[in-house]
Design goal:
Blueprint: H1 3-7, E1 13-16, H2 40-56, E2 61-63, H3 71-81, E3 89-94, E4 96-98, E5 110-112, H4 116-130, E6 136-142, H5 152-163, E7 167-172, H6 177-185, E8 188-189, E9 192-193, E10 197-201, H7 210-218, E11 222-226, H8 233-236, H9 241-249, E12 256-259, H10 264-271, H11 288-296
Parallel strand pairs: 1-2, 1-12, 2-3, 3-6, 6-7, 7-10, 10-11, 11-12
Antiparallel strand pairs: 4-5, 8-9
InterPro entries: AKR2_Oxidoreductase, NAD(P)_OxRdtase_dom_sf, NADP_OxRdtase_dom
Protein name: Oxidoreductase
Organism: Spirilliplanes yamanashiensis
Length: 301
């Protein structure tokens, strides 16, 4: 069954575990959201709580990554405990290695490498945790200069994985997301498009990828929106989480919009966007270069 078909009929809001898979992240206000001490056990319990609540509310897409600390591990454990959750669609990402050692004050939290050797290693690590539950595997944070867009050896490896039933996609970041998306859409193996999903940042502050995401949807890709709350900025200083998420859901090209909730209350509020009238929203957009510069300056907490 096609990925889009598996997601049809489910909530268009997915759950991302970036904020609860590791002790440090850049979401505003996060310092007060997490359990005291942020031990592995406490973070696992929080992730499982969110997964339980999301599944009960109809969420069927879960987003993790190799660089999200223990997010894959937490999800894998939850899936083992929930045989009734066979309909959950799992997406993960490779290309960043988590290096913070479960510390918030680490100098470097993740290291990027889109080479074939990193893909081989990280796919093995992901498979060891998720087994045959890996439905979608995306290259993490592709930019126009990423070697992953031109490495034919890597493309062959990705095509082999696609041939075994895993959808191959890209996630993008940075001020040139549209250029990266369009470059990814041109990549073919054996005369067929390689990438069948695109995950990108789109929000009321940074909507520049919208036209390229529409092209991706027209090309048959599943389109996943990340950072619809601008790492908490739109929830804290903007229109609020429901309005910001509803704006993303209103985009005709959006297949799934991710919630990055770290608490049950945040998740419950985020999910209200699924039935909210998006109405009219203010023009809050800023130049893409400014948005990504300010994002890079957000503190890990």
């Amino acid at each position: 069954m096609e990925l889009a078909d598996r997601l049809s009929g489910a909530s268009r809001i997915g759950l991302g575990l970036a904020a609860v898979g590791r002790p440090g992240y850049i979401t505003l206000g996060r310092a007060a959201d997490l359990p005291a001490g942020r031990s592995v056990e406490a973070m696992r319990a929080r992730a499982h709580e969110l997964l339980d609540r999301a599944y009960a509310a109809g969420v069927r897409y879960v987003d993790v990554a190799r660089s999200y600390g223990r997010a894959e591990e937490f999800l894998a454990g939850w899936l083992r405990e929930r045989p009734d959750a066979a309909d959950v669609v799992v997406g993960s990402k490779w290309g960043y290695t988590y290096t913070a050692g479960w510390r918030v004050d680490a100098g470097v939290h993740e290291v990027k490498d889109h080479g074939a050797a990193t893909f081989d290693r990280q796919l093995g690590e992901t498979r060891a945790l998720l087994g045959d539950r890996l439905d979608l595997y995306q290259i993490h944070s592709v930019t126009p200069d990423s070697p992953a867009l031109h490495d034919r050896d890597l493309h062959g490896r990705l095509a082999e994985l696609a041939g075994r039933g895993t959808v191959i996609g890209v996630s993008t970041s940075g001020p040139a997301q549209a250029e990266a998306i369009r470059a990814a859409l041109r990549v073919e193996v054996g005369g067929r498009p390689l990438f069948r999903s695109v995950q990108a940042t789109w929000n009321l502050l940074e909507p520049s990828a919208g036209p390229a995401l529409a092209e991706a949807r027209d090309a048959g890709c599943v389109v996943i929106v990340k950072e619809a709350l601008a790492n908490g900025r739109l929830a804290v200083d903007g229109p609020g989480d429901v309005a910001a998420l509803a704006a993303a859901l209103a985009q005709p090209w959006a297949s799934v919009v991710l919630s990055g909730a770290a608490t049950g209350d945040q998740l419950a509020s985020n999910l209200r966007a699924g039935t909210a009238d998006p109405g009219e929203w203010a023009d809050l957009a800023v130049p893409a270069a400014r948005y990504w510069r300010e994002r890079s300056e957000l503190p890990w907490s």
